[in-house]
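Handout, page 2. Input:
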Amino acid sequence: MGLQQGLVTWFAGVLFLSTLLLSCADVHHYEFFVRESNFTKLCNTTTLLVVNDSYPGPEIRVHRCDTVFVNVHNQGNYGFTIHWHGVKQPRNPWSDGPEFVTQCPIQPGTNFTYEIVLSDEIGTLWWHAHSDWTRGSVHGAFIILPAKKETYPFPTPDADQTVILESWYDGDYKQIIDDALAAGVSPRQPNAYAINGHVGDTYGCPNDTIFRMQVDSEKIYLLRIINAAMNEHFFFTIANHTLTVVAQDASYVRRFTRDYILISPGQTMDVLVSANRNVGQYYMAIRPFSDSSAAPVDNITTGIFQYTNSEGGLNASLITLPVMTDTDAMINFLDQIRNTNVSQNPGINVPADKDIKTRAFIAIAVNNLPCNTCVLGTRLVASLNNVSFVSPRIDILQAYYNRNMSGVFTEDFPLNPPVFYNFTGDLTNFNTPIEEGTRVIVVNYGEGVEMVLQATQMGAGGSHPIHLHGFSFYWVGTGFGNFNNETDPSTYNLVDPPLINTVHVPGRRWVAIRFFATNPGVWFMHCHLERHSSWGMDTVLIVRNGKTKKTSIRPPPSTMPRCPGT
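Output:
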């Protein structure tokens, strides 16, 4: 990035945030007590690790550019961390949360206070554990309201409602993945899907509860939808009602209306719905989407959109959702998402070709490695550019910042696949060598970065929701088949690309993202299908410090959890 472009980028960001800071920047404090509690669903009682005895956990509700302190008390039996998904944490990777990337786990009987620094995020985000599979039960909403005196760029809703979509397992989430990794096989499927902790009325247990959203006729509601599922993309609908998407991943989008949405694990969407039908009760429902040969269980989970003073049964008992394998419904929905040039969004600032200093072409795959102790003699692993990420025992941020620890990571993640092949073709008898390691990408502060994420048919193929910590990035391109670096960049949308933190990479397709590396720190990048991340479909982006204090990582807090053995 040239000096002039860098100054423009910096000034625009400072001006936007300075305007916000004139009317906000309150400080909030929360206490999270994480311990085991019993929950009964599907006519079975299960012990889960949860926050403040609730599933899902407590909601954080603040205003744009506020600061939040969350004191996390570990009263459970094993260590964990918590991540504030979608919060960029400018210059503050110490509170980002991924285990052994930016911190070591909070050990049982100890506590740690996270400082969550908001900037331009607006709308719906969420928080979740970032250790093993603990996030399956340790998660909740993070709602960011407009700053004081700031308005919505759409009709002001009469009320809002958080809707968290979940995977329900009868069993301890950590134990489920530990057992699968030891055997070298895929973890088992969930027993049900849930909406705000309720599994609805489709699973056959008479004691199960159903989520009910009470609404008044002719009122407008803002649904804050979060996909907290472990491995499932979801279609979502409300019978006989239309859904108007207004935001994704805490950034406003150009409004569009559908009778369903598609939301991937890790993503959030803000959706307007008008209670403008006959007074009554209407199903809301979710079902999984899959374009993979390792498909999830095709269950439908229900809730109720219930008008005040409605009596009797459901007005619309027929649930209309795309079938689980409807790739046209997936593509048609994703194609609608565009940025919107409203004053409540930061100005659109997509790196131009001349700004790009680091280009990465990343092939996403699931592979096998030999394993003498595993059930089948091999174990499942996953990779980015043939590197399967290995989590160290000392966090990467500490090793990078202190510069006095060797052997924790290497700065040689390959920016291209070591072998080029027909990524989206028939790969039944094809295999490529896989290396395991803690290999990271390093870029300079302020430079433009482009990443092309290529889905492959290695393993079961299918879609991948790729999440980058510390940034919102522009989703500038997508296409079918193998990416062509000579012709496909001409199709990029550099005018109004969505600004998101988790991108859906469809099976047999590619996506391209761009961003300016203006957040110094150590930032995790991974697939938000939890089994894939557990198998190594991860890497780390390190952004070097700039030349000033304001463009450098903040010093660490003195209370960081100690790493095992240190």
